[in-house]
């Protein structure tokens, strides 16, 4: 078996970088990302197949092959050097910020002699006066976790609860909210809800349970769990919980909590009669969940003990202050939304807490920029407003969006008055507020383009955001299973059209390219950075026109310029422009 594994790994290595073996250095920009993704995706599909067939030994063998392949190691390094924390070092102070250092990391990413280092612990102030502690692993530990996540996540997805939506590929809070609507909206739906919150879930899960049930090399998993952290120069041990700040941590937590839905089904819904009588349904997003039921007594006296018993085996427990039973007519907050029935009609709206948090962010930005120019300030505000509005665009948000716009407008007028204390209201209005279409008093300014020219920008209005019903993901859908490939491609197409609504040029390019990067051939998805590449460079007179632009992943764009590659437009897709 060992010889077969080594042969397969060496073959994968030469496919990705011509002539490279496992121990030879690679050139970062010579890596063929298209083949790397294909190699890894093929192995992940085989892991899913073996898992569904109950072939444990084959699963372990395929995991070994995957984690020792050059393809997977290259993708792991790529992930940790392109995400948001790429410039944040761990206790060793290292960051991988050059092609040479990234290539060296690919070569060195192996378990031989590897020992996880402690986390660098950083305190983040909370609004209530306390602190939230953030654990920062080293780049090497992040990359190693990313590597083994490639082999673990296909198993986690195959075993996952159908109605678990947190920290899973292709799933989102919108899916959890839509499922909540589905189990509570009808007149005959359950009227009571157990709002559950697992106390310090990521810090509390028992190491013994994780060591016994997570299909990873035991020495490696033990090293991550027991690595500890450094605070103020002193090492502190970790006796429970998943690795703080680690890429693999959400997968471990989800796997620990998976099985709760099946347990509730076994206890309260084995037969159609039981399901109709109890109406017990679980909707979970990481450690935050709800369970529906026909009576408060059922949830408090029967369902809650089952949940607590399930958690005890994993050394976790419910939060006493955040777990309670609520009638649907009183409503409850879940994932930033308020879910409540009014005269038998279920309405889901942005919660008061979510609105308050948004306005607090806007207020903080204005306070931190008392003398800023309008243009750059607008760009900063727009990112916050648009992100918040897009999150809430699938629920009954129109009235809330109008209210939010009104509050933000008055905060900006107050900011302008403080900035220009000696100017009249009319002068301030002429300077900052314009009429745009049918909208009056639109906060406006100018920003400089890359070529030195100026352009007008306006404050984004939350009320401009169209309300669009979310299509919930199918419970059994597995992004690693080839049987679901067409389903996910169609779903990505719909989600991208929805997300890029109003960004016509980007949407037309995405549809023209069938959603795929013109270099690596992988899907252009929301969680990765994209760039627009000019086929004829702007310095040579190239323009920002559709016929001169293609969408590329950020890393692929850098590769194009480093290697001097030519990129071409795809063949026209019939109907692409009409869809946009």
Instruction: Classify the beta-strand content into a percent band.
Output: 5-15%
Report how far apart the termini are.
52 Å
Low-confidence stretches: 1-15
Give the biggest beta sheet: 4 strands, mixed
**Radius of gyration, taken over Cα atoms and rounded to an integer in Å:** 26 Å
Q: What is the number of independent domains? A: 4
Number of helices: 22
Q: What's the shape?
A: globular
Helix content: 40-55%
- Class by helix and strand content? alpha+beta
Q: What's the rounded overall pLDDT mean?
A: 91
Walk across the major sheet and give the strand order. 2-1-4-5
Number of strands: 16
Walkthrough of the structure:
The protein is an alpha+beta fold. It has four domains: 2-158, no CATH class; 175-202 and 253-349, Alpha-Beta Plaits; 352-464, no CATH class; 482-579, DNA Binding (I), subunit A (Orthogonal Bundle), CATH 1.10.30. It has 22 helices and 16 strands. It has helices spanning 2-16, 33-52, 56-67, 70-82, 99-108, 139-159, 173-184, 201-204, 207-213, 218-225, 249-257, 260-268, 272-278, 296-312, 352-368, 374-391, 398-419, 425-432, 485-499, 504-512, 554-563, 576-579; strands at residues 119-125, 131-136, 192-197, 229-231, 234-236, 281-285, 288-293, 324-327, 332-334, 337-342, 345-350, 433-436, 439-448, 454-458, 530-534, 549-553. It has a four-stranded mixed beta sheet, with no helix packed on it. Strand 13 and strand 14 form a beta hairpin. Helix 4 (70-82) crosses helix 5. The protein is globular and about 70 Å long. 36% of the residues are buried. Residues 1-15 have low confidence and may be disordered.
């Amino acid at each position: 078996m060992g010889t077969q594994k080594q042969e397969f790994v060496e073959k994968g290595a030469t496919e990705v970088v011509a002539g490279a073996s496992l121990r030879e250095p690679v050139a970062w920009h010579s890596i063929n990302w298209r083949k790397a993704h294909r190699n890894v995706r093929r192995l992940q599909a085989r892991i899913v197949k073996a898992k569904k067939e109950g072939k444990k030994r084959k699963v372990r063998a395929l995991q070994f092959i995957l984690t020792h392949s050059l393809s997977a190691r290259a993708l792991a390094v790529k992930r940790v050097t392109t995400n948001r924390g790429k410039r944040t070092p761990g206790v060793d102070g290292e960051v991988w910020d050059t092609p040479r250092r990234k290539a060296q990391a690919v070569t060195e990413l192996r378990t031989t002699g590897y020992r996880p280092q402690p986390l660098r612990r950083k305190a983040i102030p909370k609004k209530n006066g306390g602190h939230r502690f953030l654990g920062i692993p080293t780049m090497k530990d992040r990359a190693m976790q990313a590597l083994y996540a490639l082999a673990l996540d296909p198993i986690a997805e195959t075993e996952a609860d159908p109605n678990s939506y947190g920290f899973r590929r292709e799933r989102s809070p919108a899916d959890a909210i839509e499922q909540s609507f589905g189990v509570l909206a009808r007149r005959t739906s359950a009227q009571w809800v157990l709002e559950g919150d697992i106390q310090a879930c990521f810090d509390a899960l028992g190491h013994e349970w994780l060591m016994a049930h997570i299909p990873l090399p035991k020495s490696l998993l033990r090293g991550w769990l027991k690595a500890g952290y450094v605070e103020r120069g002193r090492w502190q041990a970790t006796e429970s919980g998943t690795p703080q700040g680690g890429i693999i941590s959400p997968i471990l937590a989800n796997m620990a909590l998976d099985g709760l839905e099946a347990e509730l089904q076994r206890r309260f819904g084995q037969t159609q009669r039981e399901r109709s009588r109890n109406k017990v349904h679980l909707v979970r997003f990481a450690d935050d969940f709800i369970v529906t039921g026909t009576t408060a007594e059922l949830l408090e006296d029967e369902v809650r003990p089952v949940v607590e018993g399930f958690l005890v085996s994993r050394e976790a427990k419910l939060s006493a202050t955040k777990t309670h039973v609520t009638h649907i007519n009183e409503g409850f907050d879940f994932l930033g939304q308020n879910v409540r029935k009014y005269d038998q009609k279920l309405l889901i709206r942005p919660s008061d807490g979510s609105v308050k948090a948004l306005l607090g962010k806007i207020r903080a930005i204005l306070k931190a920029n008392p003398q800023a120019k309008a243009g750059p300030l607008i760009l900063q505000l727009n990112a916050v407003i648009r992100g918040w509005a897009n999150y809430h665009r699938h629920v009954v948000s129109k009235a809330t969006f109008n209210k939010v716009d009104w509050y933000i407008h008055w905060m900006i007028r107050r900011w302008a008055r403080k900035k220009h204390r000696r100017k009249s209201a009319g002068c301030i209005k002429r300077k900052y507020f314009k009429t745009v279409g049918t909208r009056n008093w639109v906060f406006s300014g100018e920003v400089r383009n890359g070529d030195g020219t100026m352009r007008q920008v306006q404050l984004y209005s939350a009320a401009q955001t169209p309300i669009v019903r979310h299509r919930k993901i199918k419970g059994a859908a597995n992004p690693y299973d080839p049987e679901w490939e067409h389903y996910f491609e169609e779903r990505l197409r719909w989600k991208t059209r929805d997300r890029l609504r109003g960004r016509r040029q980007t949407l037309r390019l995405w549809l023209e390219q069938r959603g795929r990067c013109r270099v690596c051939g992988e899907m252009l998805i929301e969680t990765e950075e994209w760039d627009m590449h000019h086929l004829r460079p702007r310095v040579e007179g190239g323009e920002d026109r559709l016929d001169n632009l293609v969408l590329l992943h950020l890393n692929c764009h850098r590769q194009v310029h480093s290697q001097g590659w030519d990129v071409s437009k795809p063949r026209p897709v019939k109907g692409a422009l009409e869809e946009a």
